[in-house]
Design goal:
The chain has about 575 residues and is mainly alpha-helical. Among the domains are: about 1-155, Serine Threonine Protein Phosphatase 5, Tetratricopeptide repeat (Alpha Horseshoe); about 355-405; about 415-565, Reverse transcriptase/Diguanylate cyclase domain (Alpha-Beta Plaits). The protein contains 22 helices and five strands. A five-stranded mixed beta sheet has the order 2-3-1-4-5, with helices on both faces.
Length: about 575
């Protein structure tokens, strides 16, 4: 890579803090695929410094990089929130900043692609490249094209081969061996799709040779290259070689704990297809199902492809009914994902529009105030008008916050929505079972005291993602206050609820929290209660809290689960 060193320590630009922030973000951006944890730490520190300096461009860049890393980890909800905030900061820079504009547009292009808004994805990708070319910085031009590749390649734009050749030339000119290796990988894949398998194998061989030059920071690159070579072997009917490379890709991508769910999906698809070609349909089915479970709710496109391959495996194994169920599951999951992603896109667009309207109104008021300053007799009236407008805006914001169902920090449902949900469930006459889980992060005050409230906010946001990713789509996850959460599980008996709570506890305990701050570890205590019918939800809530405190008293990082009757 062009730079593998990531730092925010003072250097040659220490006299200019904004330039020092820009230098640190340049390094983190170049290394974020191979060292996502370190890059995230730099981005968080730079965001803090930029905010203190009043540097909107630096803050926009730091937020965009956090969003890109979060997206690569599968956290699409949090990435959308970061993108909206980054867009607001980028627009606040009156003179404009090319790097901020490019990096925000790159994030928006990939978010639009993964949420199915392909027209917006193309628009952001083209804008990203155009702004970078106008700036002229070679590293920025390479980054813009690399970020746009996933959009342009998957949407198969007519000039895709020329775009790849151009990216390779720029990467070589920049002396960026990592980018050169990935660009050659993309060219190899293009030649494979065109049926030129010998040429594809030659190109992927050159890519491996270049990738070795950046060792040991080539884990991600080797995973990508191994996946592509597996696909080339498979196209050439070299099934054992395809299987070996697919498993090598998985090993490279799994090292370090920051597994990219999109690449996981692509790699598993190749492995499943290779197993099918080898006549090992049962094993293909097992590997596909494992991958779908591991992906959870991340990257609908990859999950859909795997489920289709799983259905093929089941069909070849003459398990027709299960094949049909796999396809039905795929359709249902994608329907739910489409609805959720559409709402995410709408929320993002609303946030950007609201910010633009507020900014334009502020500019109008500022211009009016400047004019009124020339007439002392009208100055008092102008001040009263501005004060009235500020009070109206504050009242409107308070009203919107009061009406909102979402917690601003975590994106989870808030207490208002939780109470309404419990009231609705309690009024149902169907007598179906209901389970509740009260979740509390252990020693959270110590996290704030030791690492700071910004790190605490990051922990809460990530914990919310883990809860949301672990439960079913029909479950309701709410932040009830501070570090406390409630999971409502309709139509769920005690056995299923206890198993879900244990998965939640394990997900929190095994999360690599050190990526937020070195030395950080987080656990959760959970109280679970189940009842055969939602006759008295208030009692259920109180019992869940009692079980939670029992788990705390028993040593924390555990689940205390009892049925309603036993409690």
């Amino acid at each position: 890579m062009a730079s593998s060193r990531i730092t925010t320590a003072p250097g040659a630009d220490a006299a200019d803090p904004r330039r020092e922030i820009a230098r640190a973000l340049d390094g983190a951006r170049a290394a974020h695929h191979e060292a996502p944890g370190a890059a995230m730490a730099v981005a968080v520190r730079c965001e803090t410094h930029a905010r203190a300096l009043g540097d909107p461009a630096g803050r926009a860049r730091a937020l965009a990089l956090q969003g890109m890393i979060t997206l690569n980890r599968g956290g699409m909800h949090a990435a959308f929130a970061l993108a909206a905030e980054a867009e607001a900061e980028a627009e606040a820079e009156a003179a404009g900043d090319s790097a901020a504009t490019v990096e925000v547009a790159a994030l928006e292009a990939q978010l639009s692609f993964f949420s199915g808004s392909y027209r917006d994805a193309l628009r952001h990708a083209e804008r990203c490249i155009a702004v970078a070319d106008g700036d002229g910085d070679l590293g920025l031009r390479v980054y813009a094209r690399r970020s746009a590749c996933i959009v342009l390649g998957n949407l198969d734009v007519p000039e895709w081969p020329e775009r790849l050749d151009e990216l390779l030339v720029l990467a070589v000119q920049h002396g960026d061996h990592w980018e050169e290796a990935i660009s050659r990988n993309d060219l190899a894949h293009l030649r494979m799709v065109a049926g030129a398998l010998p040429e594809a194998m030659e190109e992927i061989g050159r890519a491996f040779a270049v990738a070795q030059r950046v060792a040991p920071r080539n884990r991600f690159a080797l995973g990508v290259l191994s996946c592509t070579r597996a696909a080339i072997h498979l196209a050439a009917e070299r099934v054992p070689e395809a299987l070996a490379d697919a498993r090598a890709a998985m090993e490279h991508l799994s090292t370090g704990g920051d597994l990219n769910p999109y690449l996981l999906g692509m790699t598993v698809c190749v492995e499943v297809q290779a197993l099918l070609a080898a006549g090992r349909a049962e094993e293909a089915w097992e590997r596909g199902r494992e991958a779908v479970a591991r992906l959870g709710r991340a990257v609908p496109q990859a999950r859909s492809m795997i489920l289709r391959d799983v259905a093929t495996a089941l069909h070849q194994a003459r398990r027709t009914e299960e094949a049909f169920l796999a396809l039905a599951e795929s359709a249902e999951l994608e329907r739910l994902a489409f609805r959720e992603l559409t709402e995410l896109q709408r929320e993002f667009e609303r946030a950007v529009v609201q910010h633009g309207a507020a900014r334009r109104e502020a500019e109008v008021l500022a211009a009016k105030n400047e004019e009124l300053e020339t007439a002392l007799g009208q100055l008092a009236a102008a001040h009263r008008e501005l004060a009235d407008r500020a009070e109206q805006l504050e009242a409107l914001q308070a009203q919107l916050r009061e009406q909102a169902d979402r917690d601003w920090l975590t994106g989870l449902y808030n207490r208002r929505f939780l109470d309404a949900t419990l009231e609705r469930l309690g009024a149902r006459p169907d007598g179906e079972p209901l389970s509740l889980a009260a979740v509390d992060l252990d020693h959270f005050k110590a996290v704030n005291d030791r690492f700071g409230h910004l790190a605490g906010d990051r922990v809460l946001a990530r914990a919310a993602e883990l809860l949301r990713e672990t439960v079913r789509a029909t479950d309701v996850v709410a932040r009830s206050g501070g570090e406390e959460f409630v999971v409502v599980m309709p139509f769920t008996d005690a056995l299923a609820a206890n198993a879900c709570a244990e998965r939640l506890r394990a997900a929190v305990a095994t999360e690599p929290w050190a990526a937020i701050a070195p030395g950080m570890s987080i656990t959760a205590s959970i109280g679970v209660v189940s009842a055969p019918a939602a006759d008295d939800v208030d009692s259920l809530v109180r019992l869940a809290d009692r079980r939670l405190y029992a788990a705390k008293r028993a040593g924390r990082n555990r689940v205390d689960a009892h049925s309603f009757a036993a409690a």
